[in-house]
Design brief:
heterodimer, A: alpha+beta, five-stranded mixed beta sheet, five-stranded antiparallel beta sheet, 23 helices, B: mainly alpha, 3 strands, 69% helix, globular, disordered N terminus
């Protein structure tokens, strides 16, 4: 069938073609080898990283927030252990049954019950549902009783913020609450450390010092499979607690302030006149910041939001008020400094029948009968408006504003420390031209002299102003966070041209409180240990018409919103001043009757606490 | 007849003397490796795949040895029958086959789901080897022989394409065409058909199913859809690449053990092996396949009959083709087509077909002096 030559030809063909194919095979295998080499040896690191990225998941845990302490080391914003209730659906046999049991045990509302079921649908079976953030002790013990029947349910110890002094520190510290989208967008640090349910500062110092307070997350590294289920824990990296911050505030005095402001709208602040340390700072009404920790309920929120006394406003630094007569020490000082008057300069105050008349406008003194002939000291003591109309007319608004600004008015006291701190307003001719496009009118100078008109101050500014008068006229920088010391070049720089002028003002303020016919004479303390000097102020909310003047109504006869604000600034003890305070009671009537008595109660405690405070300070220095 | 016709039967001793123990040993090593790899895909436990693969290998390996003692001339005699039988099974599949994941490929035999298309890979080689065994060099390029041999290739290919299983159909056609190549079909025909293929490529692509087009797009750029169609190839490359020089160690391949690898039992088994044993392991596996391929070629070279020669060369090319396409696919060098890695991949029909092929090769080497008229 085959002949020899064809067989040989056939074999030759096959073998030749085998050779070609074998060469091709070797080439392909060589190609595969080099591909393997490139993937496994050259690009090994790249793929190793990708493989780790596949399998390793980091889960961040809640960082422990730094605490706030008062001057004596008492915790005023701390961390509290709370019990949370978790369910892992995968471990539960009958999810509906378990949740129904929990609903009965914990007394959950229908809405909360639905919420759990809604959440169940969103997550994977092995993920955790937090049923309750904060079990009460009663709920906790009840759940623990039944825990052996509730497989898949567990109680977990967690940490939450607590404010042990409730409403006392709300406006200073602010409060923390669950981070929302805006917090995350605004603060990179929060974004980095974000874990669901993380609490961040919403206002006050909690917000300002967010970055130092936050702390570092604990990090758990897990190995996960392709579906995201955790297989094993690889390692646990311990984070660190946020920095603790000490405030300069004395809780006892702060508590007294809260008590004194009870049922009133207003503010008290107390300051060390040498170090600028804020001893107390309270704005009233306040609210309990603990309400916000686990989400405030709608009713409580509406109550706070709609309160006409505005509890959400920190009046001490965000409230703007006409200073009223509390500006008079500055007006007098400015006049003395600019040598417009001398201490013996006298004005005749004739009362309402013969008011000061300028360009058809009349300017009344507050006292109907008039003060007669008054000099500087008498003018300050009795707060004679006519006297100050005259000296401010002679002084002019520009020179007045210069002195006022020097003493800290019209400028943020804490710099950037508090969000929304108000600058207030110290008007002058330039300002009016720029802001309103009108030229200054003499009448406006005259009412500025008694703290009315354009001028606006915050209570903290008035406190600083008083402190700087009390310490002999030296510049200080108020501070509220103890371990946050900044260096200022012009600290303790004299603010006066002649220290005699400061002495004169101090003595005039002393007379106003401690001498007969002084506006706050009734609130004096005779014991030299507690004796203080001050200046009352009554800021009009509404322009007084001729009709009002005729009616001459008592405070309680006027509608609340139209009553005058009562102000009082003071420093003491007079012999050896240490502390300054400013008090404002919104719609409180006159400064002498409402605000000054508060100072009397306050100064006793302030002076009594001085020794204790001093001992802590000395000890602090010893420690170093 | 100018050749001596060794019509006498070899004694058992002669048969054992002629036996290719190196090939046998290599297959055994590969089988054991595959069982251990399967054990790793089951996450270090003896589960379904390990058990099943172990049982199949321990049945098919002795079966291969038994079959290898059948004289090659009987294989020659039964070639057409074998081909027709498998073709019949393919038709059966088309009519009554079991459908799984969208394609109709299996016959339910109660103890095993048989995939005739895998067996067709061998049958087509066998059939064409017999066909060209008889044909003279001069008539190889005749119209009749070309058209008959093409028909032998095209009929099963079309049946398999309609299952649909493009990958297997391509492998069947290539296995057939290589016999045409060895038997001396003019090279220019190959060049022409290659040119025609290239020019008609756009036309062919327009006939592809959407998922097939997607596979080609994904092959060109796997990052196009990293969680969808590109997922397999990306994860596979990560697994191989992260293996490094010496691998992550047996049972320590994180990609597979954490379920990032899809189809790790079947088509992507090389990925797992490569992740756990690294570059060194992969090269050793390639080397093992190279030795097997070499031993098959050697069996052909020493064979006296054209049938043995053509079958061995064709089968060696088929083994090479499966290994090369499978590895290229998992390394991202080819689009994903379903092609198992011989012996390593889980799958009874593929294992059965490969083992039958080996038994014929072993038989050829035992009976290399056998003349077939």
């Amino acid at each position: 069938m085959f002949d020899e030559s064809d067989n040989v030809r056939k074999i030759n063909t096959i073998n030749r073609r085998l050779f070609i194919i074998t060469a091709a095979k070797i080439l392909v295998f060589f190609g595969l080898t080099s591909r393997l080499f490139s993937l496994q040896v050259n690009q090994n690191n790249k793929y190793l990283t990708l493989s780790d990225k596949n399998r390793i998941r980091e889960s961040k845990l809640h960082p422990v927030r730094g605490e706030f302490r008062d001057y004596f080391g008492n915790v005023i914003a701390g961390n509290n252990e709370v019990y949370q209730l978790h369910i892992v659906p995968e471990q539960v046999e009958d999810f509906r049954y378990i949740t129904l049991r929990l609903k009965n045990i914990l007394n959950l509302s229908e809405r909360e019950f639905q919420k759990i079921h809604k959440k169940r649908k969103k997550i994977k079976a092995w993920e955790t549902i937090v049923v309750s953030d904060n079990l009460t002790w009663e709920q906790f013990s009840k759940v623990n009783n039944y825990l052996h029947e509730l497989i898949g349910v567990k109680t977990v110890l967690s940490i939450s913020r607590i404010y042990p002094f409730n409403e006392n520190y709300t406006h200073v510290l602010g409060y923390v609450s669950q981070a929302n989208e805006k917090d995350i967008v605004d603060n990179k640090n929060i974004k980095e450390k974000f874990v669901p349910g993380i609490r961040v500062g919403k206002t006050g110092l909690e917000k300002t010092f967010e970055n130092v307070l936050l702390g570092e997350n604990d990090i758990q590294r897990f190995e996960v499979n392709a579906y995201g289920r955790k297989i094993s824990q690889l390692n646990y990296q311990k984070g660190s607690k946020g920095q603790d911050l000490n405030l300069t505030i004395d809780t006892e005095i702060q508590k007294l302030c809260t008590e004194l402001l009870k049922d009133k709208a207003g503010s008290i602040c107390v300051m060390d006149i040498f170090s600028g340390e804020i001893i107390a700072m309270q704005s009233s009404p306040s609210f309990d910041p603990n309400l916000f920790l686990f989400g405030i309920n709608q009713d409580d929120w509406q109550l706070i939001r709609n309160n006409p006394m505005k509890p959400l406003l920190n009046k001490t630094i965000n409230g703007r008020y006409s200073p009223g007569s509390t500006i008079k020490p500055i007006v007098a000082l400015s006049a003395l400094e600019n040598e417009v008057i001398n201490p013996e300069f006298t004005v005749h105050c004739k009362g309402h029948k013969h008011p000061l008349e300028l360009y058809g406008q009349t300017y009344h003194c507050w006292k109907k009968e008039g003060h007669g002939f008054v000099n500087l000291r008498e003018g300050m003591k009795q707060s004679c408006d006519t006297y100050f109309y005259e000296i401010s007319r002679r002084l002019g608004v520009d020179r007045l504003s210069e002195t006022a600004k020097k003493f800290g008015l019209g400028e943020k006291v804490f710099g950037g420390l508090f969000e929304n701190e108000k600058k207030g307003l110290v008007p002058n001719t330039m300002w009016k031209k720029n802001a309103l496009g009108q030229s200054w009118v003499l009448g406006e100078t005259i009412i500025t002299g008694i703290g009315q008109g354009f001028i606006q101050t915050t209570p903290i500014q008035l406190c600083l102003m008083t402190a700087q008068i009390a310490n002999g006229g030296y510049k200080i920088y108020p501070k509220i966070v103890l371990n946050n010391d900044q260096q200022y070049l012009d600290k303790y720089k004299p603010l006066f041209k002649n220290s005699k002028n400061i002495k004169l003002i101090q003595s005039a303020m002393f007379s106003s409180t401690n001498e007969v016919r002084g506006t706050s004479y009734k609130s004096r303390i005779d014991d030299p240990k507690y004796q203080f000097a001050g200046k009352t102020g009554t800021a009009q909310v509404k322009r007084i018409t001729e009709k009002d003047r005729e009616l001459d109504l008592k405070t309680f006869e006027i509608p609340y919103e139209e009553r005058d604000h009562a102000l009082y600034v003071a420093f003491g003890p007079y012999k050896n001043p240490r502390y300054a305070t400013s008090i404002i009671i919104e719609h409180g009537g006159s400064g002498g009757t409402t605000a000054a008595p508060i100072a009397k109660k306050l100064f006793k405690l302030i002076v009594d606490r001085h020794k204790l405070r001093q001992s802590v300070k000395e000890k602090k220095y010893l420690d170093i | 007849m100018s050749f001596n016709n060794f019509s006498h039967e070899l004694t058992l001793f002669q048969k054992i003397k002629n036996y290719d123990f190196i090939l046998l040993f290599c297959i055994l090593i590969l089988g054991i490796t595959s069982i251990f790899t399967m054990y790793s895909t089951d996450g270090g436990e003896v589960l379904f795949h390990t058990k099943s693969h172990f049982i199949k290998f321990s049945i098919f390996f002795p079966m291969m040895i038994v079959l290898s003692f059948i004289n090659i001339k009987y294989w020659h005699a039964g070639s057409y029958l074998f081909y027709v039988l498998i073709l019949g099974l393919l038709v059966w599949v088309a009519l009554y086959g079991v459908t799984a994941s969208g394609s109709k490929r299996w016959i339910n035999l109660y103890f095993l789901n048989l995939q005739p298309s895998e067996l067709m890979k061998i049958a087509v080689i066998l059939c064409l080897a017999k066909f060209f065994h008889r044909i003279r060099t001069t008539s190889t390029n005749s119209f009749t022989s070309i058209s008959v041999s093409l028909t032998i290739i095209i009929i099963p290919s079309i049946l398999v394409i309609t299952q649909p299983d493009l990958g297997t159909a391509i492998l069947i056609s290539f296995s057939g065409l290589i016999i045409l190549w060895f038997s001396g079909l003019r090279i220019k025909y190959f060049i022409y058909s290659f040119l025609i293929f290239i020019t008609s490529l756009p036309f062919i692509i327009s006939f592809l199913k959407p998922y097939q087009k997607l596979r080609i797009l994904t092959f060109i750029n796997p990052e196009r859809d990293p969680l969808g169609s590109g997922y397999q190839i990306i994860q596979s490359k990560i697994a191989v690449g992260s293996g490094g020089l010496t691998g992550k160690g047996f049972l320590k391949g994180t990609q597979s053990y954490l379920d990032f690898l899809p189809e790790k039992h079947t088509d992507f088994i090389f990925t797992l092996f490569s992740e756990e044993f690294g570059f060194v392991g992969s090269i050793l596996l390639l080397l093992l396949y190279s030795i097997i391929i070499y031993r098959i070629i050697r069996a052909g070279l020493i064979s006296r009959s054209f049938f043995s020669r053509l079958f061995c060369f064709g089968f060696s090319f088929a083994i090479f083709l499966y290994v090369a396409t499978n590895i290229s696919m998992v390394l991202g060098l080819l689009p994903t087509v379903g092609s198992p890695l011989p012996i390593m991949s889980y799958g009874g029909s593929s294992l059965l077909a490969t083992m039958i092929g080996f038994s014929i090769v072993l038989s050829a080497s035992i009976n290399h002096r056998q003349n077939i008229s």
